[in-house]
Design brief:
By secondary structure, the chain is mainly alpha-helical. It has four domains: about 130 residues, no CATH class; about 50 residues; about 220 residues, no CATH class; about 40 residues, no CATH class. It has 15 helices and six strands. It starts with 7 loop residues before the first helix and ends with a strand.
Length: about 475
């Protein structure tokens, strides 16, 4: 049976144990959510609601005669001319009644169209919010430290016994695969690197430590690269939506900024934004742009230098205050979200190049550390033109984007401090080791002996992301 985008979160629980690790399930779900669009949903609801639309008003001959008679009776009899005057009054009454009925008809049809629009947008927004929650979960999962287990086992392939070695994460899904190997394979044994003697020649102890450090760094950079993919998905969706609706769909409450608002709410910054209906539109855009930028930057984990980070954040209220500036902001955020992945690729290539030399592991480790330290400096996030534009915004200019600026009542420093304080609060309230509560969850409320937790990457507006422990 076919289901709508709005029903998918009710029918499919991708967050149940093991669900997050199934990449093909996520891709299939994403495709299904993307198959229907706003226009299709709008037409569907418009067709359903059209049965409640009133009929086109038509005046019967009896109603015409009644209005003419009413006009004649309301006109004093002053002779022959009074008849024509009375008919004129009657025809005027007919004209006014037809006009009033047509206005009412058009108003009712507009209300039906508006209802269809709202229902279609709710379908689309609910699906997008669900995907947003999935992406935030993936970001959190990718940033967690994961232990791996290496297993070796024998299996028959083409009648020959072949020894196979696999490395699996010790997660819910990974443990299922590990248990399945022990049940179905022969001569299964765990390989522990710490118990394996490595004969490296030369200064073995120093090279062993260097090798451990190289593997440790590579694992860290790999995790960051994987996490950046989910962040990139968030920015890509925001950029796609803004491009799709164009400049006419840009504003603090417009559909073009919907993804940014969802993201800010999803990471727990939503209540820091003032009600956009009660403040100037420019101020609302200043707040949204800065919180969106700070949220994305906080998920990049070192892909940007401190100087670039501060420049970007300081310029973000001005940058995101116009449609063209907002599109440039999304372009820069997309570039930023790709940095961890770009660095990891460059790091692996550097390691391959070093492996082809006669350099000791100790010296390779030093060379890789130097490469890591210099990569950001040698690969700046901003071009010279972009840097000057951002610096102009920080100094009070428009950075080359006409109409860009900061509302006089908006204090960028004060708002930035509020966001930073919230990030500190979130970090201080994260918990681990509590039964029934995922590690990394955040304490959001405590009432008597009952504590309420927000799941990692969860949305406070989604009751399914809140865990109650008594």
């Amino acid at each position: 049976m076919a289901i709508t985008r709005a029903q998918i979160p009710e029918q499919v629980d991708i967050f149940e144990e093991g669900g997050a690790a199934e990449t093909d399930q996520y891709t299939d779900l994403y495709d299904r959510l993307s198959q229907t669009d706003f226009n299709v949903d709008y037409d569907k609801y418009m067709q359903r609601l059209s049965q409640f639309a009133p009929d086109q008003p038509k005046m019967s001959i009896f109603e015409v005669a009644s209005q003419l008679g009413r006009g004649l009776l309301s006109t004093p009899n002053t002779g022959v001319g009074s008849t024509y005057q009375g008919l004129g009054v009657g025809f005027d009454n007919i004209s006014q009644q037809i006009k009033a009925e047509e206005e009412m008809y058009e108003k009712q049809n507009r209300e039906i169209a508006m209802m269809a629009t709202q229902m279609a947008m709710q379908d689309e927004q609910k699906a997008n919010e669900f995907l947003n929650q999935i992406a935030l979960k993936r970001i959190d999962a990718a940033n967690k430290d994961v232990d791996y287990k290496v297993l070796e086992y024998d299996e028959l392939i083409d009648g020959k016994t072949v020894t196979t070695r696999v490395r699996l994460p010790q997660t819910v899904q990974g443990n299922k695969e590990i248990n399945n190997i022990y049940k179905t394979k022969q001569n299964v044994k765990e390989i522990k690197p710490a118990t394996t003697a490595i004969n490296l020649g030369g200064d073995n102890k120093r090279d062993e430590e260097a090798l451990k450090n190289i593997y440790k760094n590579r694992a860290i950079y790999s995790e960051k690269a994987q996490a950046s993919n989910a962040t990139l998905d968030q920015v890509d969706e925001a950029r796609f939506l803004a491009t799709e609706v164009g400049e006419q769909g840009f504003g603090p409450l417009a559909r073009g900024t919907l993804k940014a608002r969802e993201f800010v709410a999803g990471i727990g910054f939503g209540d820091l934004l003032e009600d956009p209906t009660k403040i100037a539109p420019q101020k609302a855009l200043n707040q949204l742009s800065m919180s969106f930028t700070m949220g994305i930057v906080s998920q990049t984990k070192g892909a940007i230098s401190n100087r670039e980070m501060q420049l970007f954040i300081d310029a973000s209220p001005t940058l995101g205050s116009t449609y063209d500036g907002y599109m440039k902001q999304l372009e820069l955020l997309e570039r930023l979200a790709s940095r961890d992945s770009d660095f990891y690729k460059a790091y692996l290539q550097k390691q391959k190049d070093l492996n082809k030399t006669d350099m000791s592991l100790y010296d390779q480790d030093i060379e890789l550390e130097a490469f890591s330290a210099s990569w950001k400096r040698e690969n700046p996030l901003f071009t010279e033109t972009e840097r000057k534009s951002l610096e102009d915004m920080v100094a009070g200019g428009d950075g080359g984007f006409e109409g860009a600026g900061v509302d006089p009542t908006f204090d960028p420093k004060l708002f930035q401090d509020k966001v930073n304080d919230r990030k500190i609060q979130q970090a201080s309230k994260r918990v681990s080791g509590i039964e029934g509560v995922p590690d990394g969850s955040t304490v959001i409320a405590q009432v008597g002996t009952t504590t309420y937790y927000l799941k990692p990457g969860g949305n406070v507006n989604n009751k399914d992301d809140i865990i109650k422990v008594e």
